[in-house]
């Protein structure tokens, strides 16, 4: 059983505007009869001690999938950092794990691996990495960094990687399961995800 100092809150980021899908709310796009966010919750929620969704529209619909919602407050202007900032200020756990609402195959052991890497290396942030590079919206972040992120955003910062680089960060090699980090950006991506679900 984890002590309070090692509790992990989880936040699924669902505040994007889905430009390449025609402006739809990506978390609510249907995949195999369920919204994308439901697939992510199924895999991500068991890995954390509490779960939140960061949203900026369709609150009532999202509440059917998760009782605890937070509004990112800055909308898409700040990208995922808006949701991360809102979550860091909301939770009381030592760590915040994040994942996007449009990645239905997020690894089921990802948070554990990120936590182990952070604790082993004394890092403040642990981030998944594949051969495609850093996967910045799959990360574990020390909640004590909330004031730092607020200051970064107030100064006009918007790049997740740039904020991470200001802190002690460790990466976790996830190349073996690179496909697990696919996100849904286009109708073709959605078709590919449906096929993968059907054949898995």
Please tell me about this protein's structure:
It is built from seven helices and nine strands; from the N terminus they run βββαβαβαβαββααβα. Strand 4 (50-55), helix 2 (59-63) and strand 5 (69-71) form a beta-alpha-beta unit. It is α/β, with parallel strands linked by helices. The strands form two sheets. Strands 5-4-1-6-8-7-9 form a seven-stranded mixed β-sheet, sandwiched between helices. A two-stranded antiparallel ribbon has the order 2-3. The radius of gyration is 16 Å and the shape is globular. The mean pLDDT is 90.
Can you tell me the CATH class? Alpha Beta
Apparent shape? globular
Sheet having the most strands = 7 strands, mixed
Q: Encode the helix/strand succession as letters.
A: EEEHEHEHEHEEHHEH
Query: Average pLDDT across residues?
Result: 90
State the CATH topology: Spore Coat Polysaccharide Biosynthesis Protein SpsA, Chain A
Could you list the spans in which at least 5 consecutive residues all have pLDDT below 50? none
Strand order of the largest sheet: 5-4-1-6-8-7-9
Proportion of beta-strand residues: 15-25%
Helix content: 25-40%
**CATH H-level superfamily title:** Spore Coat Polysaccharide Biosynthesis Protein SpsA, Chain A
- Count of helical regions: 7
How many strand units? 9
First-residue to last-residue Cα separation: 33 Å
Radius of gyration: 16 Å
The CATH architecture can be given as: Alpha-Beta Complex
Compute the number of structural domains. 1
